[in-house]
Amino acid sequence: MASLTRARPVGTRGAIAGVGATNYQSTWFIAILVVMTCGVVEIANADILARRGSPNASGYFWAGLVAIVAPGAVRLGARSSRRVEHLLIATSICIALYLVKVLYAPSTFLFADEFIHYQNAHAAISSGQLFNANVLLPETKGYPGLASVTSAVCSLTGLTIFPAGLLVIGCARFVLALAMFLFVENVVRSSRIAGFAVVLYAGNPNFLFFSAAYAYEQLALPLFVVVLFLLSLRRENHSIHTRSAVAAGVLIPAIVVTHHLTSFLLTASLLLLAGLSVRRRSEDSKPFWWLGIFALTLTVLWSLTVARATLPYLHYILGGAIGGAADLVSKGGTGRTLFVSNSGYVAPIAVRALTVASPILLLILCIAGVIGFRRFYRRDPFASVLGLAALGYFVISLLRVVPSAWETGNRASEFLFIGLGLAASFGASMILYRAKRRLLATYSTACLITVVVLGGPAAGWAPSYLLPRPFELSAGGERIDPAGVAIARWTGRELKPGSRFVTDQTNARLLLHYGSGIVSLHPAFAQILIQSSSFPSWERAALRLTNTQFAIVDRRRIAWDNLGGYYFSRMGTQRNSYFPEAMFQKFGRAGASRVLDGGFVVTYDVSPLEQDARRPVEQRGRGQHAPD
């Protein structure tokens, strides 16, 4: 490990340029790239088989992930590998894993938050204005960073929103991998550890799918890491470059207007770095203080003036997490059932084994890495903050067993895993440096890293949704859409633009993407209104006050699952997966008329239920029936 302390500091130019790779090293990288490509092809084949309902799809999926990660992990630990290889391998693995998500949904957005941000981008392009309202997630109105970048890409390239969104998030993924590599390299002065850290970060439970989705956090997080990288650059006297501090100051407003949680955590990180620098009498404290105060001022002002819905939203999320955790400890409540989804799907034994093995290996590597931190980087404020983040990850992970706190623990993992990736990579490097049999240690370390990366999606994504379901069918040369998509398209064709709807989580998002209607009630209120058997006066008042004209009632319970309710239902679905027919009868008894009957999804004209009967009868739906 002594070689780590004698390594040459990475300057501004050295951070980007490296020693040219020899032909031998280039051959290794090309071979690894070929194997990665084969892994991506295997996953594409797994997706095709999964859409056809093949039971063999899962095996191809996991084999493809191994092919993407394992060869690069082996080469990162090889004694003959050099800096350029470390950088190329780490970034290539991250890009290949991003392609896994693209292949999951290659023709349209299918993740819950993607529908919301698609609507924000569409509203920005069509209206020429930012800060457009979105009832499904009102907080996004105050953070137009992603919508503005997507609009610019669409204007410059002529692309539609979907390919432009894939391009934006793909570039953000590349920047995240590159910036994290350079940041860790500057902290520990080792490109090998930096490569390990980037690959281990891919073991983050959200990395494979959620962090690759078209959403505002996925644009803000890379900028967060770029700020850390800029502040880690040093002069010969170990002080921060003035130009780097200025560049970091320029990026801070971009983060503040893009994502709330990222801006809060950036502010906390800068102030913590400033405090540690003062305590250790470092010359870096002034830039940290100035930038921390600047970030704090912008974040507070933006939250209080422009994004005023943010603080109530975070209070609701964090308050529920703290309250749920307290109830679980004090009252002995029941936590989430591990390895069982909300629909009752039980994860296979192999997936459960990965889910358990991954955090155990991370904890072992993390403890070894933190011990190494204290020995070699005790006076470095970055190492201290990252070490605290690594340990904090395991504390926050306990929230995942609390139903009301699961989302908090899940979202925080993306940020805390930056420190955990560094700590675990430091622990992995200690195995290599102290091993008497380097070749055996190299393969053993690669196996550990591969298990950690594969454990990420096993732990962070519902096992039943690791592979896609059928979203489009064809018969006789004609495309057949799922019921929700067909209804959304019908509303765009047959109803007046701007018609207002109340519906469930799934159909609300499909309306935003495929229809021309407006969701007038948040799905949390819509769930109470639609699923109740009675029709009290407050429900009628809610419809009247929000000018709601139509109600889409979906009997499938999965329609309230914003992850899996968009697809065709498979044959043999159990009866208990549907709500009782009384859900349909409620609106009919109250005087609403069916304007579209799709079997288990029915659209009602609820305007007669409004006491003032403001909408003329001529503007109601045509009473057509969709084919089953």
Total discrete domains: 2
State Rg: 26 Å
> Average pLDDT across residues?
84
The run of helices and strands is: HHHHHHHHHHHHHHHHHEEHEHEHHEHEEE
Question: Which segments are poorly predicted (pLDDT under 50) over 5 or more consecutive residues?
Answer: 1-21, 611-628
In helices, the fraction of residues equals 55-70%
Largest sheet: 6 strands, mixed
Strand content: under 5%
Distance between the termini: 68 Å
Number of helical elements:
22
Spatially, the strands of the biggest sheet line up as 4-3-5-7-6-8
Structural class by secondary-structure content: mainly alpha
Rough shape?
Answer: globular
Please tally the β strands and state the result. 8
Q: In words, what does this structure look like?
A:
The chain has 628 residues and is mostly helical. It folds into 2 domains: 2-464, no CATH class; 473-625, no CATH class. Helices cover 61% and strands 4% of the residues. A 6-stranded mixed β-sheet has the order 4-3-5-7-6-8, sandwiched between helices. Strands 1-2 form a two-stranded antiparallel sheet. Helix 4 (83-104) runs parallel beside helix 8 (191-201), helix 9 runs antiparallel to helix 10 and helix 9 (216-232) packs parallel to helix 11 (260-279).
Give the arrangement of secondary structure elements:
Layout: H1 2-6, H2 23-51, H3 57-77, H4 83-104, H5 112-127, H6 145-157, H7 161-188, H8 191-201, H9 216-232, H10 242-256, H11 260-279, H12 285-305, H13 310-330, H14 349-376, H15 381-397, H16 406-434, H17 438-460, E1 473-475, E2 478-480, H18 483-494, E3 500-502, H19 505-514, E4 518-519, H20 523-531, H21 537-545, E5 550-554, H22 582-590, E6 593-597, E7 601-605, E8 624-625
Parallel strand pairs: 3-4, 3-5, 6-8
Antiparallel strand pairs: 1-2, 5-7, 6-7
Helix pairs in contact: 2-3, 2-4, 3-4, 3-8, 3-17, 4-7, 4-8, 5-6, 5-19, 6-7, 7-8, 7-9, 8-16, 8-17, 9-10, 9-11, 10-12, 11-12, 11-15, 14-15, 14-16, 14-17, 15-16, 16-17, 18-19
